[in-house]
Amino acid sequence: MIDLPPLREVIREYQLRAEKSLGQNFLLDQNITDKIVRLSGSMAGMNAVEIGPGPGGLTRAILASDAARLIAVEFDPRAVRALQGLVVAYGDERFKIVQGDALDIDPLSLVESPRAILSNLPYNISTVLLLKWLEQIRKDQGAYRFMSLMFQKEVGDRILANPSSKTYGRLSVMAQWLCDVKRLFDLPPSAFTPPPKIKSSVLHFVPKDLGAQAPKFETMEKILASAFNQRRKMIRGSLSDYMAEIEKVGINPTLRAEDLSVADYAALAAAREAFTPA
What is the spatial distance between Cα 143 and Cα 116, in angstroms, rounded to a whole number? Predict the structure, then answer.
């Protein structure tokens, strides 16, 4: 075991006040961060990427695992300075910090396969990042071995939502189409510093092997945007441009967007691509 100073001392020394504008809420309970890594599965030989490590609670848990390497992407220069102690403790071959905006940084360029992403995501960009990584998974099923990501609980509920529910939508379909997704556990606001006003959820994503004939990410995106932007309409209205595909697949046109399954949307996308020359 490497002897490290308590996280609260690190926060005090580097004046790491969590910034709402950066979507920061620090997770300091090492039992919880260890649990995230443990429930994620084997880390042996894994090249891990962490987004927004803050003072390094989850970072420490990843480094204490069998992960081969960890790259942390951090926007806040205060946190970058605070994490230098971990670079010294574990060596820059094992742990590296990249300062920058996660929206502009491609995890695939940071480490080689096998890769995993583990992160207490900044809440204000969590869904944008997820969709970006899901698009990469569609292009390369081996892009990430898995992703263990923390969201606001309401976002986690949307990702896991079933058809015919109010929370089921574009994010639900995209995530469940491309990955097997499960909830690892929920966290109360008291687990964080400072406590947010909402609960949080840790979700685990394992990419599916959809096969070479699966529809393109962009095709699914267009169909889902049309359907759920007018979710109260029957799909004969919201998806009027796709009536040929609806008839071919055999979906009832009087259903609404939230009534179609993930498989229904995938079938519609495949039918659209069959009608549209590449």
Answer: 9
